[in-house]
Amino acid sequence: MSSSESVKSLTELVQQPCPPIETSKDGKPPEPSDPPASDSQPATPLPLSGHSALSIQELVAMSPELDTYGITKRVKEVLTDNNLGQRLFGETILGLTQGSVSDLLARPKPWHKLSLKGREPFVRMQLWLNDPNNVEKLMDMKRMEKKAYMKRRHSSVSDSQPCEPPSVGIDYSQGASPQPQHQLKKPRVVLAPEEKEALKRAYQQKPYPSPKTIEELATQLNLKTSTVINWFHNYRSRIRRELFIEEIQAGSQGQAGASDSPSARSGRAAPSSEGDSCDGVEAAEGPGAADAEESGGPAAAAKSQGGPAEAAAATATEEREEAPRPAEKAEPPPSGTPVPDAAAAADEGRPRAPPPPPEGPADGPGPVPNPAAAAAAAPAAGEDAATSAALPGEGPCRARDGADRSSALPSTSAPAAARRPSSLQSLFGLPEAAGARDSRDNPLRKKKAANLNSIIHRLEKAASREEPIEWEF
DNA sequence: TTTCAGTCAATAAT
DNA sequence: ATTATTGACTGAAA
């Protein structure tokens, strides 16, 4: 009823898309950039009649299901087509840092898997895409930034550094005093490849290690406990995310598919490790073979090596995987040597039986797909207990999908918007209608085509008009 | 408590 | 100079 009214105003609001400044009460100063920006952009054409500052949070709340994948795809296109960077876009439009933007654009999570907060950036992106002047505005920002930079850089003549005086606290210790405050910066831990390997192996055996296990791992690898904990948290979510994108891609090519069969995933799935590690998780997807893996299995076997049953029991009861190994790493230098035996130590878990882990400390870049071997090898006896325990809740990809989604039954992306009665549609609906949305039919092909097109498009653009963009100094 | 979702921010890679 | 990766931190949910 009245909702349409407000919606209408919203529509206009869209015209004024970039409110980087959240306004709010949130506790985080949005962007530390330049509060005192004397921008030219009025930034408030807002012809609206007062009230209704409608935070995007509200927009998010009533937003229909958005196609996150499609949105990011288009945003990427627009940005690259116009030579706009993620940093600028992120800070200006989304209020996020470059790294976050990169991540978001590269691996968008499906709408229904996002929390309210997580949807926000996507709504902003959609809003931005709908804004006819989006590019122009961003370009302006870019120009201004550059100008400011230049100014500051060789502030040679005249002006007496406008924003220079650090005034408070911020001491400019340029070149002198290498004793800046107790080195308050933490060095940022970087895990060595061997350490990551070891952690991944541990993950495969037990994605949710007990505190005790974590402690042991930390000790063996010579890492802080918190680092190990963080690593597991991060790794879990990363894996999960990986699954999401596979889900999306697979889904889009879905049934009608027909062409191909290849193991859809795999494409570039595992980022850091060529495929190895994830098998546990990915395997989950596979029908039969999947369960092999045994996590507890090998480990347990290693130690007790007696009856499988017992091993399983042990695992179930408590975990006590790790090995008794005499490791005694005799106090290695805290920092210097990354512990060659760290790998060995962790490795310990599943060493013997199955295929020899072909990787040594210096395993070549060889893309050798050995992962399968491990999985395959598994006898798959009966350690379900262990397995089940090991696998995270949801596990297989199927099963979900029909679940959430507050509004109706829109099976997948597109339709929802279409059947929306309210005029919200105008807000989120694509202006260009370049056929982006009604994919449903043969999305996969379309996606690929789109990619090619974008590439071609970009090339053409580059060829024809080479960077007319500001070169003004 | 613990896990998860989102991010930040340093730093690797391009 | 950008973009990608990733350990750590924050806040919310269970």
Automatic annotation (TrEMBL):
Residues 322-331, 435-444 have a biased composition (Basic and acidic residues). InterPro entries: CUT_dom, HD, Homeobox_CS, Homeodomain-like_sf, Lambda_DNA-bd_dom_sf. This is One cut domain family member. Residues 182-242 form the Homeobox domain. It is found in: Nucleus. Residues 352-370 have a biased composition (Pro residues). Keywords: Coiled coil, DNA-binding, Homeobox, Nucleus, Repeat, Transcription, Transcription regulation. Belongs to the CUT homeobox family. It comes from Moschus moschiferus. One of its GO terms (molecular function) is DNA-binding transcription factor activity, RNA polymerase II-specific. Residues 1-14 have a biased composition (Polar residues). Residues 57-144 form the CUT domain. Residues 1-49, 152-187, 252-447 are annotated as: Disordered. Gene3D superfamilies: Homeodomain-like, lambda repressor-like DNA-binding domains. GO terms for cellular component: nucleus. Residues 184-243 bind DNA. Residues 256-273, 283-316, 371-390, 405-427 have a biased composition (Low complexity).
